Amino acid sequence: MPAPSPMPRSTPPDPPAEPQIVAQVHVDSRQTTPEIIVHELTSNPPYTRDYLLKTSLEDQIRLLLSQAFAVALSSFFLSFVLLWAIFMHLIHTVPLLIRPKKLPKYDWDTYDWGSERISRDMAYYAQSTGFDITDEVVETKDGFLLRVHHVTNPKAKDDPSGKGHYPILILHGLFQSSGSFVTSEERSLAFWLASQGYDVFLGNTRCVFDMGHKTLPRGDPRTWDWTIRELAMYDFPALVDYVCQTTGHEKIAYIGHSQGTSAAFLSLSKGMNPELGKKLSCFIALAPAVYAGPLTRGFPFGILRRLNWTVWSYAFGVLDFIPIMKWAFDWVPSAAFGWIAYIMFSYLFNWTDSNWLKRRKGKMFRFTPMPVSSASIFWWCGKGGFADRRCIMDGEDHSPWYDERFPPLSIYYGGRDYLVLTEPLLERLEKIEKDVRVTRVERIELAEHCDFYWAADAVEWCFGSFVEDIERSRAEQASSRISSSSSSSDTLSSTN
């Protein structure tokens, strides 16, 4: 992607020790080869490593003014969309005020959580349900620092094998974070899995929870010069490797939601990092974001996908996408922020709270939205991006994307999810991806995009199935080791 204005060419950060891809992958319109990835940045941001010394004052002022203009314009755009979203929300809410619906009651919802405060502190939610969360840091090969939240159960008994309990890595979707998996009390996905005896790691992508780069400041455009491609090349492998190394397990279970599935599907492709599949005992894909749904053709996506990068960079800048969202996250009171965020995202993504426990809504949206790069949202929504091309890779490519190294795959999708389409993915898996073993496909008719962990009935809908998928893959893994050991013993006996 070209820079928004002609500026001195930047000095790229130190290349990783070894390239992570070996062939071209059609992730976007930019060329993707090992040489390009290792030695050149994706959008050639204007600053050099010592930009205060090497960049002229004129260039600094030009960038400052362009960013100020982008902040003002994007804030106006967000305000317009928010006001329209509030208006539409009121239209739908007024009839409910006249004839209110009776809220469902659940037998398990017996504890009085009314005194629980809405917080941005992950540890607060863990401790209130009897679990512990530790903050850990993972460094990617391109120098980004990622926040990992490690959930532990103090009541869990030690594993006699000495390796600890079986590890699960969970990765969030776009604009979200690991906080999405801890706001449903003891029925939160993270805590529920920990209560079943698993060692749960909640991953986060770059720049979430104010994490940055090892050497670059957050104000440097290179800190924000990334898209889903970098998440697939660097973040996802770094998280998987970290969990394997920390726990001592050769394989781990992986659960991804939305963008978390996109990063995995890209990373495990033959053109990027298929060897990583050998470290996953199973891949549980929730609302897989591989093909775009009909919602991406409506407002405002229909307008955004007409913007090329030059126009986009002037409108939204080259740093984080609509910075006012981060300021609101930091300074707006929690209850008000949660209410505003829900109205905004329910309008944009057609989410409703029909399947949620209403008292949890403020907590859910205290961790949404999280900072995302402008370049990344352009990849999803801009001209030539996901909403425009309708697929995360080349949808017209009828050759297999994956080989036999792809882990056993389970897919869960909702009948009321209009943001992504799962049927084209299922068709491709059946007709083209012969090496991918699909162990489960489960369509939950009432489920929307985030209901696999936010729905009040999520435990009954799918959590038990997650455990079945994980344990089935573990049993197959153990059986494979026994067979391999027996074959080795037979070979040794025959030679003797």
Automatic annotation (TrEMBL):
Domain Partial AB-hydrolase lipase positions: 123-184
GO terms for biological process, alphabetical: lipid metabolic process
Keywords from the named record: Membrane, Transmembrane, Transmembrane helix
Membrane keyword on record: yes
UniProt-listed Pfam families: Abhydro_lipase
Membrane-spanning parts: 68-91, 331-351
Full protein name: Partial AB-hydrolase lipase domain-containing protein
